[in-house]
Design brief:
Helix content: 55-70%
Distance between the termini: 20 Å
Number of helices: 5
Largest sheet: none
Order of helices and strands: HHHHH
Low-confidence stretches: none
Shape: globular
Structural class: mainly alpha
Mean pLDDT: 96
Radius of gyration: 13 Å
């Protein structure tokens, strides 16, 4: 399925230690694939965080970062950077 293909491409842009070690990682990558397809290179760190939060609700509903992006400290916001870079890279390749 095309969503899974895009999701695999996003995952391939991440180092193994950047992939979560819990939960259904494929589901998270599918969320990022949707962002790549829907928002393209205009995806924001807030978008990345929101997709992660939707996934994390099922993994750890009391995770301390389950709050709006604007309420996170800079260090926690920065944890979204590798995913943002990966989604934008895949989105850019889709636009060619």
């Amino acid at each position: 399925m095309y969503i899974d293909e895009v999701a695999q491409r996003v995952a391939s842009h991440l180092a193994p230690d950047e992939l979560p070690d819990q939960g259904d990682v494929d589901r998270l990558m599918r969320g990022y694939a949707v962002l790549a397809l829907a928002k393209g290179v205009d995806v924001t760190a807030e978008d990345i965080h929101n997709a992660w939060a939707a996934w994390m609700i099922d993994v750890d509903p009391v995770h301390p970062a389950l709050k709006p992006y604007s309420e996170l400290d800079r260090e926690t916001q920065g944890e979204d950077s590798p995913y943002l870079i990966a989604v934008r890279a895949v989105a850019a390749s889709l636009e060619r």
